[in-house]
Amino acid sequence: MKKLPVLLSLSLISVLALSCSKKDFTEEVARTQNEIVRDTVVSVDTVSGGVTSQDEMNLQNDTYTYKAEDGTLATLTFLNIDSVHTLTVKMNDKEYVLDQTEAWAKGADYEKDGVKAHSQRDDLDLTIDGKTIKLKRQYDK
């Protein structure tokens, strides 16, 4: 009868030891797990939720060339990382960095310092000083 408490104690210690080692293994897998971002595999630190390096963070930018009705070209960069969603517009030797104010499946609204942008699919309306410039995305042919 004295063997029963000893066996129970050993069983309990074994279960605790196994559960601890399983937890360590699970945490290690979570730290080194890969995530697919825009068809590119990058290593992600799932403990802090952040991208592991500045170079990998740059992979999450989408940059396109747009053309105004008057022929002026603009470079637009959409940045979407965690809670940061911005649009950078480079046009006529000026740069505007706008914060996203609203988003939906095929577009978004951006605004900062009185400059507004409304993107819908391949079209973007940029309003500066009350004037709206209509831009259309250009594709390489």
Compile the SSE list and pairings:
Layout: H1 3-32, E1 34-37, E2 40-45, E3 50-51, H2 54-58, E4 61-68, E5 73-81, E6 84-91, E7 94-104, E8 107-112, E9 115-120, E10 123-128, E11 131-137
Antiparallel strand pairs: 1-2, 2-3, 4-5, 4-11, 5-6, 6-7, 7-8, 8-9, 9-10, 10-11
How would you portray this structure in words?
With 141 residues, the protein is α+β, with helices and mostly antiparallel strands. It contains 2 helices and 11 strands, in the order H-E-E-E-H-E-E-E-E-E-E-E-E. The strands form 2 sheets. The chain has an 8-stranded antiparallel β-barrel with strand order 4-5-6-7-8-9-10-11. Strands 1-2-3 form a 3-stranded antiparallel beta sheet. A hairpin with a 2-residue loop joins strand 8 (107-112) and strand 9 (115-120). It is elongated.
Brief write-up:
The chain is an alpha+beta fold and 141 residues long.
Distinct helical segment count? 2
What share of the residues does DSSP label as strand, in percent?
Answer: over 45%
Instruction: Give the terminus-to-terminus CA distance.
Output: 85 Å
Mean pLDDT: 76
Strand order of the largest sheet: 4-5-6-7-8-9-10-11
Q: For this entry, what is the oligomeric state of its chains?
A: single chain
Radius of gyration: 26 Å
What keywords describe this structure?
141 residues; alpha+beta; eight-stranded antiparallel barrel; three-stranded antiparallel sheet; 25% helix; 52% strand
